[in-house]
Every structure is written in C-alpha cells, then in structure tokens.
Amino acid sequence: MASSTPKHHVSSMRKRLSTPYARQLSASFKSPVMKSNKETPKQTSILTLEEMQEQISLLEERNQELDMEIELLQSQGFRIEELQWHIDKLHEYNEIKDAAQCVLGQLASLDGATVKELHERYGLTMDD
Length: 128
Prior knowledge:
By secondary structure, the chain is mainly α.
C-alpha cells in the first residue's frame, strides 16, 4: 500500500518554504573550508636577478644574526645537547597537567561544581 502525503500537509509545507528563513536554508551551502575561485592563491611571479640577490643577502644577514644568538647562549652556559631533555620534560609536564585537568573535570562533574570553583577551593590558579 503506497502512502501519499495529505494535501493539507503539502500546502502548509509550501507556506513554510516561502518564508525568508526557508529561502536562506535552501540556498546553496558554501563550506568555509573550500575556497571559491576568487580565493585561489595568486601565481607567484618570477623574481628578477636583483630581487633574488636581495633575498639571498637578507637570508645571509639573518643567518649571521642567528649564529651570534647561538654563540651568546652558549657563552651563557646553554648547551644544544640539553635541548632535547628540556623538550622531553615539557612534554611530560603537559601530559601530567592534562591528566590533572581531566581529574578536576570529573570531580567538578561529580560535585556539581565548575572547574573554576574547584581551582578556587583547592587554591589553584587557572595557570596551574
């Protein structure tokens, strides 16, 4: 048995589709992720020899500045070998902090409070 749509339902639907909101909803959807043809990146122009030499000069200057910064840091006792250790410790700290925030979130949920209230209750700053 084939079902048919009642006529009064169809007419009321047409009335709803004629509202300004329905027209907006039925308009074509434009995803913010997809770029329109107008937003395509511009073609890069070919650099002149002078422009390339200027860029090379700027990059060489920046390289010298960075070398001087490295020398300064090394003269202050910093060692490149220690860098990975510090990075690892920062990762470990962030993992512990994330776990603590999860626990606070669960406690807040069980207690019917907000995480901010628990921070205040336990004397924690929002930076902790």
